[in-house]
Amino acid sequence: MSPKGLTQEQLDAYNEDGFVIVRELFSRDELAPLRAAIDDDPTFDGSEQGIPDSLGRKWNTSVSTVTDNSYIGCLPRLNRMMDIVEDVLGEEGYFWHMKLVRKDKDAGGKVDWHQDYQFWYETVLTPDLVSCSVAVDHNSRANSCVRIARGTHKLGRLDFDRGNVLMADEGRVNEILSRGHEIIDCEMYPGDVLVFHPLALHYSEQFTEGAERRTVAHCTYNARSNVPIAISGQEHRQYVRTERLPDNHLEDRLYDVVFAGHEFMDNKKLNLVKGDILY
Question: In sequence order, what are the residues at sequence separation of 6 or more whose Cβ sits closer than 8 angstroms to the Cβ of residue 46?
Fold first, then answer.
């Protein structure tokens, strides 16, 4: 099957490195309404929650597990996004969730080294998921862009650190990095999209300087065949066919609102330390 959303070269890079950056998948005009709405309400209707890092600081996130005809309910369903997802998964994918992550001088904690699949291991049997992270602002080392250890998706799932459930085992991470896995700065401009594997070891540094980052929209998808384990509290992760939208949906402003009134996950359900669900 020939790739649709990725070139063969991009798909090969993803399979080898655990990630690939697709440049200019979105235009600045398409992103302008989201940028303006975040400037007006950076807490996403009060849904934003501070997640603690290993040093006691926090980074901010809002989590959405539903789709509707709001801007953020439409963005992950565009054909260009779904084509990339199905190229990577090799089958139908469906929307899992979106994390809207903001860093600034007030909530600039680091995101500790982790694999996303660590958080989903008890929900699905295989790491057949993929995340497509849309840059709304310039993402650079100065404002704490995502950093990925190249090729670490081939190492399998890591345990959590015994002292911090939100980070991978520190000793094992140090051993992995000492063996030559190059750390790549995933620097992006608005409209670029980082596509990465759920086993790719990644983190972002503490925000210390540079322009504030409105948000990064991390859109995650699960493979249709990767049926979630039926456990209480996982209803939002069960398979529901994702209704695709034409690529002109955002440009032609066919959505109702940007995010006002959108149903975000209740921040009381987010795992701050030792709960059951982080996202």
Answer: none
